[in-house]
Design brief:
Helices cover 54% and strands 7% of the residues. It is mainly alpha-helical. Among the domains are: 102 residues, no CATH class; 72 residues, no CATH class. The chain has a three-stranded mixed β-sheet with strand order 1-4-5. A two-stranded parallel ribbon has the order 2-3.
Length: 358
């Protein structure tokens, strides 16, 4: 809903010393790829020892047991079986876990616990020397759109922002974070909405201009889904209508939204590389400078602080950075006030004493 700069600034104001950006094709992915990218990125910095995450079930021994079981080839085969039977990927994963693990699999019904298991599976796959710490999730459940006395869900806060009910948002945010959001709203750089927002016409225009082969080139668009998207894009007069026309038991709304965004941003299957090509720094504090110095010494991949310097490295680094630049340019068409192009090239890392540009 707000630019990467605003969110990085909020993190730095509230205790973070270095903010990193997960590359586009990993951030716009299902839980397993998202988790793999995040863990690999931290692992490749060479300086991270601990991985902390929230979970509805914080018992790390239980989570490790589930991760080891879910990491087996047998469960993966069972998941593929249920997907072939028409279940969505998350539902198929749950069915496979129930068959293999019985009542223990109930933990995977909670979205943050499932993501926690994905993090641990990534640690196993990479043989990463990271010590996980699970923090008890408190307050409202994931996507629960009701107010809570402790912590509200992000979905609830997004709805309040969409309705401009700012008094409901403020109690759940640090004052300096709310000040950042107000700053962005005054400049017209946020909030950004996928549906019923400034960018909906831009996205529908892109989707209507695509031919079938372009939909077929999208990641995770097999099984006839590319044809459904292509047909719906020609008819739908809104993104919500398009999603409804494509929705089946097999495909979740989250999966469909990711596909629509990949189509808008021009992400193809060949962009889904296996390994993170670089670590990009979005912002850092004064203490974070020392952390960056350690990363430059110990990391086993390029550390990108200045965008242009990263592009000069060529290869996969340049390719994925250019995807980011293209995505940012299209994001700028979705903000209340349209942003100029080339923002990635003109914007440096966020620093505590530097004004934001978008």
């Amino acid at each position: 809903m707000f630019s990467k700069q605003v969110r990085a600034a909020a993190a730095l104001q509230n205790g973070a010393d270095v903010v990193l950006e997960l590359p586009l094709t990993w951030s716009l992915a299902s839980a397993d790829r998202f988790a793999m990218g995040a863990v690999e990125m931290l692992h490749r910095t060479g300086v991270v020892q601990w991985l902390s995450f929230g979970s509805e079930y914080p018992d790390i021994a239980q989570l490790w047991e589930l991760a080891a079981a879910m990491h087996s080839e047998e469960i993966e085969q069972r998941q593929l079986h249920w997907m072939a039977a028409g279940f969505s990927s998350p539902a198929a994963k749950q069915k496979a876990a129930e068959e293999q693990l019985g009542e223990k699999s109930r933990i995977l019904r909670k979205p943050n616990a499932m993501l926690a298991v994905s993090y641990l599976r990534a640690i196993l796959s990479l043989d990463a020397k990271l010590q996980p710490i699970a923090i008890q999730r408190q307050g409202a459940s994931h996507d629960e759109k009701v107010v809570s006395e402790t912590f509200a869900s992000a979905a609830y806060l997004r709805d309040c922002l969409a309705e401009e009910d700012f008094e409901q948002v403020k109690p759940f945010l640090p004052p300096d974070t709310w000040a950042l959001l107000e700053y962005a709203m005054q400049k017209g750089t946020g909030p950004v909405f996928l549906e019923n927002g400034a960018g909906e016409r831009a996205m529908l225009s892109r989707l209507r201009s695509m031919d079938l082969s372009e939909f077929q080139a999208l990641p995770e668009a097999g099984g006839g889904l590319s044809n459904r998207l292509w047909g719906a894009a020609k008819k739908a007069s809104s993104l919500s209508e398009l999603l409804q026309q494509c929705k089946t038991k097999r495909y979740t709304y989250a999966h469909l939204r990711r596909l629509v965004l990949r189509a808008y941003l021009g992400i193809k299957q060949e962009d889904h590389e296996k390994h993170i090509p670089y670590v990009r720094v979005l912002g850092f504090s004064k203490y974070g400078q020392a952390v960056l110095a350690m990363m430059r010494e110990k990391a086993n991949c390029p550390i990108v602080v200045k965008f242009a310097d990263g592009v000069k490295q060529g290869g996969a680094v340049a390719h994925h950075l250019k995807l980011e630049a293209h995505a940012t340019d299209l994001y700028g068409l979705c903000t209340p006030n349209i942003l100029s192009g080339g923002m990635e090239w003109k914007t440096g890392p966020v620093l505590p004493d530097r004004p934001l540009t978008f």
